[in-house]
Write a structure and sequence with these properties.
seven-stranded mixed β-sheet, Aspartate Aminotransferase, domain 1, Aspartate Aminotransferase, domain 2, Kynureninase (chains A, B), pyridoxal phosphate (chains A, B), homodimer, EC 3.7.1.3 (chains A, B), PyrdxlP-dep_Trfase_small (chains A, B)
Chain lengths: ~400, ~400
């Protein structure tokens, strides 16, 4: 096993090492929650200031043309596309992942009107289930089936998360997509917990949704994105048929006529200030080789697993190929353990009922961070430091 | 009729005169498009900077608790409530007006399951129609009826804009609400073109939606809001049943259980940076007496109408009581007329097919601005200055 000096040497040799300097990272804290909210890129404040003062303050309503606001959902979509294996004109940015799930699944069931089953997965993030439940209840007559049942021949659509938000287990996207589509169902992937850390490729799927505030570092509540395979651009229906998806929004016609291409999945006025922050974040992603990103993520994750060893029960796959970019462990008192770690400068998070998560953001997490975090974790457990009563109190958002 | 000096005197006596200094307004331009995108409040850049650098950069994921991000949809909703006649716990902020329309209308039809008619109005902004069309098509079996038919006894819900986005005609909200509800239908108001300029009161209605980037000055693409009358809080269903509307979002249960109260209409992760800008804008609104706002809006609108006189055909009601806060005229070549005005420092806008709009934002529009704008307009028409070919070119967003 490595020692700490060897970790420092690996950091010095890391081909991605220079990206870390582009982020604002807190002093004295090892931030392993980039899988929940990514760090602030150093140049983002200036880009947001420009949107507020120069574009809005300086151009006022003229910003819709002069500052490119109107096209942001498409221009930002084109910048995200390479991160998920998609091409230009296939991704639209806006709204939230939950709303994108509603758009994707409602469009899918309309494309398979004779099928009345929607397949979901208990490993999906709960909001994906909730959105499907709301949609199925509104439409009436739909069965929601668990993915584990493995039957898709009467399913309209299968919605899965590429990476499990708790255990980090990664689906085999090409194999599952092929299996689902061979059964005549449509495939929708949620890549919230993979985009920006893995070599994501959803190009064979029918739909994909994802968020930009985790590994992509676009800021709290940054807009989501929706990928629609071009084979559906002519026929897929956007149930949220707002004016920005209209063929001629500024003709102010009474009837909805969908735009050509991916624009029909735009809904309405884009959140320009939140999008400015995403625009800044994507400047960095243009320079990131995804193969190196994935390789570093796997190496750091495996180092964490090795260093923790038997001190905790691993909740993630031991095989890095089958894992996303966070590493999870079971502990019956996971919450106070996480609090004790935070108190010692190691920030991970807790997911009910018993999951400790440590997110590895390969752009700014170092080998030495993993070394120090794992050793602090083992010490907190060995010495039972988490049994201090001040670690028991729960905030509103955990 | 007044002269220019009298306008200057009226500005000096205006009880709202000090608000103008709180906004960044362009030099040499009379900005009469505050009904489309409100001006930048001077303190907003610092509030947004704080959200980016201090909250996100400084607290990272801790901002969800420490900076109050998680509750923003409700805390901002409570700050908007007094502007629409609502009380605390009745308004939720987030998403866009189009999405709020989908939430309100889909909830309403579920509350009146035996009725299969949705009433809309050609005076609604088109996206309201489009969203209803998308919803009706998805649900199947619904008739969309025009408000002008005047029959509501078999209608589930009536959706109207308080103020017509083209003509500025204002509905009699209490009378229409009473008539619709007496017929057993639910009433939903779109107050996009009235909130922040009129004495809006939707408290008797069932639902209301509105945007914050027009008269409220919250910035390009700032989030929308949704009012739900408390009589429906226990029974209304949010079809966009995302995790932030769940009773216990951080329990990560598999089944959706709606939260109590207005929170069940939250959907998912709020757009924090766009909301920071709204938060700043609302600081101003706490100090604005709505009766004075409405009185000034009416006085300025009537002055504009009087000064233009017979030079153009009025598209708005001549009676200020029946008008919103913009004034509109017909002109068969409206687009080049607007371009010629912009070239002379008067910014209005054009809405197809033939409407010239001039928005009066009572917090920063002055009597002398109206005087100068109207005189420039009359000159452009009298001297046919709009017939220059460079005014014919149309940008993407008009």
């Amino acid at each position: 096993m490595l020692d700490r000096d060897r970790c420092l040497a690996l950091d010095a040799d890391d081909p991605l090492r220079e990206f870390r300097a582009e982020f604002v990272l807190p002093e004295g804290v090892i931030y392993l929650v980039g899988n929940s909210l990514g760090a602030l890129p150093r140049h983002t404040p200036e880009r947001v200031r420009r949107a507020v003062e120069d574009e809005w303050g300086g151009r006022l309503v003229g910003g819709w043309n002069d500052a490119g606001w109107y096209d942001l959902p498409l221009t930002l979509g084109d910048r995200i596309a390479p991160l998920i294996g998609a091409g230009p004109g296939q991704v639209v940015v806006g709204n939230t992942t939950s709303i994108a799930v509603h758009q994707a699944v409602s469009a899918a069931v309309r494309l398979r009107p004779e099928r009345r089953v929607i397949v979901s997965d208990t490993r999906n993030f709960p909001t994906d289930h909730y959105m499907i439940q709301g949609l199925a209840q509104a439409l009436g007559g739909y069965e929601i089936r668990d993915f584990a049942e493995g039957r898709f021949d009467d399913a309209a659509v299968v919605l899965l998360s590429e990476v499990d938000y708790r255990t980090s287990e990664r689906h085999d996207v090409p194999a599952v997509t092929a299996r689902v589509r061979e059964a005549g169902a449509l495939m929708a992937w949620d890549v919230c917990h993979s985009v920006g850390a893995l070599d994501v490729d959803v190009s064979a799927a029918d739909f994909a949704v994802g968020c930009t505030y985790k590994y992509l570092n676009a800021g709290p509540g940054a807009p989501a994105f929706l990928y629609v395979n071009p084979r559906h651009h002519a026929d897929a229906v956007n149930v949220l048929s707002g004016w920005h998806g209209h063929a001629e929004p500024f003709a102010f016609e009474e009837g909805y006529r969908p735009a050509e291409g991916i624009r029909r999945f735009a809904v309405s006025t884009p959140h320009v200030l939140s999008m400015a922050s995403l625009d800044a974040a994507l400047d960095i992603w243009e320079r990131v080789p995804l193969d190196l990103l994935r390789a570093k993520s796997m190496a750091l994750g495996s180092l964490f697993v090795d260093l923790v060893g038997d001190a905790l029960e691993l909740a993630s796959p031991a095989d890095a190929e089958r894992r996303g970019s966070h590493v999870s462990f079971h502990h019956p008192d996971g919450f106070p353990v996480v609090r004790a770690l935070i108190d010692r400068g190691v920030q991970g998070d807790f997911r009910a009922p018993d999951i400790l998560r440590f997110g590895i953001a390969p752009l700014y997490t170092r080998y030495v961070d993993v070394w120090d975090a794992a050793h602090t974790l083992v010490e907190v457990l060995d010495k039972e430091l988490w049994k201090d009563e001040r670690y028991a109190r729960r905030p509103a958002v955990t």
